[in-house]
């Protein structure tokens, strides 16, 4: 099952409401696309809880949202959770820097299921990329 809400003006309040429903144990959603939805780091708190509870979610697209480095901490908390089964994560053009790579690197060291991570058009720099390659 896939839900594509890309290009909608959901904002953080809309996504936080959506996350309440996605935390339901009966939710079988496998793909969630939230690209260009005017999200900030606040939305990542809700997404974190979804990653911790909904073990059916396999693909998540948060591209072209201003998540910034502060959004990576809660998102990575979700990725580190033992029940997280995410396989693909899109974070293109999310305002990330090398600081976000510290959190991502830590999460990638624990997460056993993530196979594809898209980070194009972020200011990661050589140092950030080196952190991810560890």
UniProtKB/TrEMBL annotation:
Instruction: Name any one Pfam family assigned in the record.
Output: LRR_6
The UniProt keyword set, sorted, is:
Cytoplasm, Repeat
- Note the SMART domains from the entry: LRR_RI
UniProt keyword annotation of Oxidoreductase present: no
Q: Does the keyword Cytoplasm apply?
A: yes
Listed under GO cellular component are: cytoplasm
Compartments where found: Cytoplasm
| Major place of residence | cytoplasm
Q: Source organism's superkingdom?
A: Eukaryota
Q: What is this protein called?
A: NACHT, LRR and PYD domains-containing protein 12
What organism does the UniProt record list as the source? Gulo gulo (Wolverine)
Q: What is the lineage of its organism?
A: Eukaryota, Metazoa, Chordata, Craniata, Vertebrata
């Amino acid at each position: 099952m896939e839900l594509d809400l890309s290009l909608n003006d959901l904002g953080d309040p809309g996504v936080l409401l959506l996350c309440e429903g996605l935390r339901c144990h009966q939710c079988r959603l496998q793909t969630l696309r939230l690209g260009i939805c005017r999200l900030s780091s606040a939305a990542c708190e809700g997404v974190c809880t979804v990653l911790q509870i909904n073990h059916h979610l396999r693909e998540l697209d948060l591209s072209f949202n201003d998540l910034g480095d502060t959004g990576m901490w809660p998102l990575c908390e979700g990725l580190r959770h033992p029940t997280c089964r995410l396989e693909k994560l899109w974070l293109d053009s999310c305002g990330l820097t090398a600081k976000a790579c510290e959190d991502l690197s830590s999460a990638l060291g624990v997460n056993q299921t993530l196979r594809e991570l898209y980070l194009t058009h972020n200011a990661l720099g050589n140092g950030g990329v080196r952190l991810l390659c560890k």
